[in-house]
Amino acid sequence: MSMVRNKGGKYKHEYKQKAIPLTVVKRLPVYQRLLAELAARDVERVSSRELATQMKIDPSQVRQDLSLFGSFGQQGYGYRVRYLLNELNKILGLNTGTKLVLVGGGHLGRAIANYGNFVKWGFTIKAIFDRDPQVIGLTIAGLTVRDVRELTPYLRAEPVEIGIICTPAPVAQEVADQLVAGGIKGIWNFAPVALRVPETVCVEHVHLGESLMTLSFMLKQRQEESTGPKK
Amino acid sequence: MSMVRNKGGKYKHEYKQKAIPLTVVKRLPVYQRLLAELAARDVERVSSRELATQMKIDPSQVRQDLSLFGSFGQQGYGYRVRYLLNELNKILGLNTGTKLVLVGGGHLGRAIANYGNFVKWGFTIKAIFDRDPQVIGLTIAGLTVRDVRELTPYLRAEPVEIGIICTPAPVAQEVADQLVAGGIKGIWNFAPVALRVPETVCVEHVHLGESLMTLSFMLKQRQEESTGPKK
DNA sequence: TTAAGATTGTTATTACCATAACAAAGTATG
DNA sequence: CATACTTTGTTATGGTAATAACAATCTTAA
């Protein structure tokens, strides 16, 4: 009786315009990974409690996060793993044939290009560029490295969604400008600088140095906890 | 007159036992990097406002963050760049000759080993281990790759603070166990798994897949913002 | 030396995120 | 078929982090 008692309920699949908090965004890939692992083990169902335990967060958090995007579970049962995984893939924009270009064929660039996992989610690196004549012409992950001066004409001919910057810090901004001018929508930046880009372009930083410093700080704190106060 | 009007003031250099919020911890390396850039340009002074502008945060945030560790600035003047940089280095535990071992000599491991920046902060990779006979014996970044079966005896003979895991996901936990048993205090983990370690060991994850998915999500959202609602 | 201006360190306020609570509604079982 | 149990989606509460505000005090310049 009374089909629409709780407002929303089954009928909440309109366009959602609410802003998703960044903290939630950072958890979405973790949900995706856990569900992919469960699916690989042919597990059929999972509860918010189980997911929460693995992530060391509260079950309410899991339910609240997912409810931002829809109602994917069943009371008294939980979530069907394959269904929720599929929904999360859609939410994250995976398996849509996203194209990337990589700029910088140094050690880090090579590691990224050879990192096989991305292919699983439908990401494909279409071309690699470098400035160094020693690197141009080499084959990395099956692609011949091109001269970075070909970047702009390439993007004009072959539109690409994401650009990866694996260059040294001093040239990163210049490369970013070229990528933006070439119509790139997102930049995955491994150079230790804060890039200036228009608001329409998304930037995701991976800052190895900052990560190691964070670890260093935590170690130092742990150490002081044990040596500092003699309580 | 009245030297100790504001309680604390110059005299707040006791042991601080307050827990530093993780959000603050993540900003500390960014302050460090900005200050290092200023110092390299021989800039002498900087205000919280300038730092905040670069990081797109509020000036109060900068002052509040730094005040957790001491009083480093001067009213009406700001912060002396070199002094504050030096203090931040101490806070972060940089330039203390921290020793690391790297496990996993694949593409990513090689990139990490060759990433020159770490040396600047006093981190040194002392040894590299791998399981693959094809990789064992190779020279990476001036080090000969050892058999991972030598890891435990190595750590017994040569204590090391941090272990880097650049192995495939399925063996990461096993490696982590060995590192912990070997007395490691921190783990820098590049494998896409949540490691189980004792509370005494710090883990810093670098999860490339999650980072790319985050970018993918943000791109999808941007796209929906422009196409979805016709307002 | 004095007064105007600048900027810190700290406390107060606001906003946001995480946890708790609970009604709704399904599952499982006898 | 009824009853106990489970678990969701959502709202209420609590706590933590970001911003605002301000007194203290240093700098700078006349």
Low-confidence stretches of chain A: 1-16
SS-based class of chain A: alpha/beta
- Overall mean confidence score, pLDDT of chain A: 91
CATH level-two architecture of the largest domain in chain A: 3-Layer(aba) Sandwich
Quantity of strands of chain A, as a count = 11
Give a structural overview.
The structure is a homodimer of 231-residue chains. The first copy, chain A, is of the alpha/beta class and 231 residues long. Chain A has 2 domains: 18-91, Arc Repressor Mutant, subunit A; 98-210, NAD(P)-binding Rossmann-like Domain (Rossmann fold). The first copy, chain A, has helices at residues 22-40, 48-55, 59-67, 81-92, 107-114, 117-120, 151-157, 169-181, 208-227; strands at residues 45-46, 73-74, 78-80, 98-103, 123-130, 139-140, 143-144, 146-147, 162-165, 186-189, 202-205. A 6-stranded parallel sheet of chain A has the order 8-5-4-9-10-11. In chain A, strands 1-3-2 form a 3-stranded antiparallel sheet. The longest helix of chain A is centred in the C-terminal third of the chain and has 20 residues, at 208-227. Chain A is globular and about 60 Å long. The interface between A and B is large, with 61 and 61 residues. The structure holds a DNA duplex (30 and 30 nucleotides).
